[in-house]
Amino acid sequence: MSTIEYLALPAYKRFFYKILNFFVAIPKAIWRFISVTIVGFCLKIGKGIANYFVRLYEIFVSGDWKTKLSYLIMGFGHITRRSYIKGFMYLIYEVAFLYFMITTGIPCFIKIGTFGYVAQTSFVDPIKNVTVDVFMDDSLMILLNFVIAIVLIGIFIFLWSIQVKENNELENLNKIGKSIGDKETLNSLVGKNFHKVLLSFPTLGVVMFTIIPLILMIIVGFTNFSSTYQNPKELFDWVGVYNFQKLFGLTGDNGYQFAYVFGQILLWTLIWAFFATFTNYFLGMVVALMINKKGIKLKKLWRTILITTIAVPQFISLLFLSKFLSKDTGALNVVLKNLGLITENIGFLEDALIAKITIIVVNMWIGIPYTMLMCSGILMNIPQDLYESARIDGASPFKMYMKITLPYMMFVTGPYLISNFVGNINNFNVIYLLSGGNPQFTNVRGTPISINVYGAGQTDLLITWLYKIAMTNVSKDYGVASVIGIIVFVVVASISLIFYNRTNAVKNEGDFQ
Amino acid sequence: MSLRKKSTLYTLINIVSFIIIMAFVAMIAGKGLFNYIGEGCRYLYNSLFNRQFDFKTLVVILILLASFSLFGYIMFRTLSKDRIHGEDLIAPFAAIIAPTLVLAAIYGKKIGVYADKSKVLLIFAIIFLCLYVLSTIILLVDVIKNIMREKGIVFVGLFRTKKRFSIFDNGKMKGGKRAREIVSRTIIYVILIIISIIWLAPFVYLVIQSFAVRYEAGLIIPEQWTLDNYKQLITNITYPFWRWYLNTFVIALIVSVLNTVLTLISAYAFSRLQFKTRKGYMKIILIIGMFPGFLGMIVTYYMLKQVGLANGIPGLFGLVLVYISGCVMNYYVAKGFFDTISKSLDEAAMIDGANKNTIFWRVIMPLSKPIVVYTILLAFTAPWGDYMLASVMAGGHTELFNVAVGLQQMLTKEAGTTYFPVFCAAGVVVSIPIMILFFCLQGYYVEGVTGGAVKG
What interface predicted TM-score (ipTM) does this complex get? Predict the structure, then answer.
């Protein structure tokens, strides 16, 4: 259909036509995604790897004996070409790497299939004639060393290829009578390679305390590591996707309870994140608008009062409120009773639905000041001539808000909203310190089912559930905990991917209109 | 009467009446103020809707109506001045508290329980009422004068003033527009006052409770006051608060220094240095950030245990390590700030022969005071509020808790409300330094919050 034909259609037909087009375009889009994106990506990766090996091969063939030897002894070329510091660094790394691999790495690779052979054994000491316990294999240590070994291998391959390429460069420079000595290497650290100096320590921290534990924990998701298989007395073992099955209720024997609870908690996590983000955002904006309104006095006083909530550590106000709102001993209930507004105590944190509402309201109390601060800064940046011209055109304040303020705010604070949403999915403090995830889930007969679901409560988020499983619950089923962690990642990643792409699209459109 | 004289008189009356009200509140608050008010409300309701209408009720209703309508006006008057004195703020609250107390006093007799006190209350109420009526008359005159002036009538004589006194900023506005402006401002002020009360009330209650001998849900203001709770913070053996405080303080100090340096240098690297892996690196950090940090924490604990950094004093250093290890992930806000600094500065310095290290410390840093302060502030306050990581690292050892974990122990279900006043005292002790820090550095904080969100 041509454009003119399309425009000639009545409005409702255009609407249907659009819908039809949308569905027609789906297979095409999927095909495009597969053929262009995925295949292209694979091709790119494959080409990259192939090029890499070809380059290494070329260097090997064309290089002199020093370069060739540095394929075996890292940094040999550097040392023989007067770049001592770099050369020795490479050499030291290689020696340390080989030492680690031979002493711990390779045994771990052998044992990883069963996480060791014997955890604990005892023998009778022939001299003292007493039984002595000996701890042999520690499954967690084997796993840890395995992961460290893999990371070290990755680093080794990376460094190795880099030093080969550098050797090639050095060789070429030598041919025209130049060289890169130690002085140049050191100088480049505050010039060309300054980023390496700056980022080396932070990267080390991230690799050691974030990346390695994360990889390890993801692997743990496929094992039965729990308090039953506590190291060092017991070995744990691979269980395949059993933990994932458990999450989706495929393990028989009350398995459906687990799946039900998981679904409820996931749903509540999303609902919570949505409400927590948007109530704070809009109400904070409204408060900011009110305070910043022309002619309102004492702007600083209002702002300072709200900032008090930020200044007092969150956990204090949360713990305090948890007592303040409690059913039996809470002051709020007594006050309401004395005022004659209620006759029976309300379970602000004991009744599931009310508890959820309370949590969102308390979160508003905590979060609005942040948004208010942020918004008042941005509101001052909105060009006033926009309002001026709108006023001349006769727009009402509400219309001005909808057409100028809100789009501007959305445009500027889009990334903040997404990160805030993600932050709320992982908002541990508000839930754990306020309600502790309570009340418990119950079955049809009204008896709590907390044992089967590792103490999950109705106001638990995925993150607090994860914490409970790994920390406070007796069984400490780390396998399930890490599966939940993976689920959190999937949720967070998909949400941020979708929305980041959207906001980028907005950005690409250019400036705020 | 000149304006100055009048406002002096007005202020005086307000102060006196406020003192009386406060004495009044202090006297009956502990004895069930809410009972009085609640019963009064109920009686009023009964007499209105069960046709037991009497003269007294009518008077009370009139007082209530007058005072509520006056409340709005006084609020305006007070707030529309260019300079506001503390005592001016008392007036509106006096206007709202007064009728409530009158109500309590008049109907307190009906309950019978407090019959003996009721006479005293009534005397107070009458004294107060006289003062209140006086100030009301003055204010009413003001209102009438304002209305007259608006209509173009100039009142010359007893209440003549030389200065033109307008309660609104935009004196140029006319007719309906001005009326609408008044209405909208009234609404906003009322909302803001309610918001302020909601936001401050818990803290006031926290401070008051920290002086209570024991927690009693019914009493907003405790019967007996004591400083024992603050003493217990040091002397209590089960809950060694001073130890937790020290732990947190030391950790916060170390972390704030290290974290700031590391965050800023990585933000600088991402903002200014052009290197091949820059974008990829930032993407990887984004993806890692999507995993819940707690997931790796369990393993980290075992790892640190293996190195001997999980128990005793080294355990605290383990916690420091964990806190600072993730600091590269917080580059976002600082990077946004660095991006706004003009790159021509770098180039100029480069031409003068500075290397990148010098540029960072000598050119960028002096210009980035707000973001440095913001990062320090955030890094310093973060360990105070962290529960999750600290509880893992402490591993159940009381001497390794930070304040958050420790204070949570005080309020568990098993502990009940026994330690609630002690908790409140601890809360006050923890909050005050951070609060002072915050209020001193408020400007920087606002700048950081705004800057980070806008420039992302």
Answer: 0.80
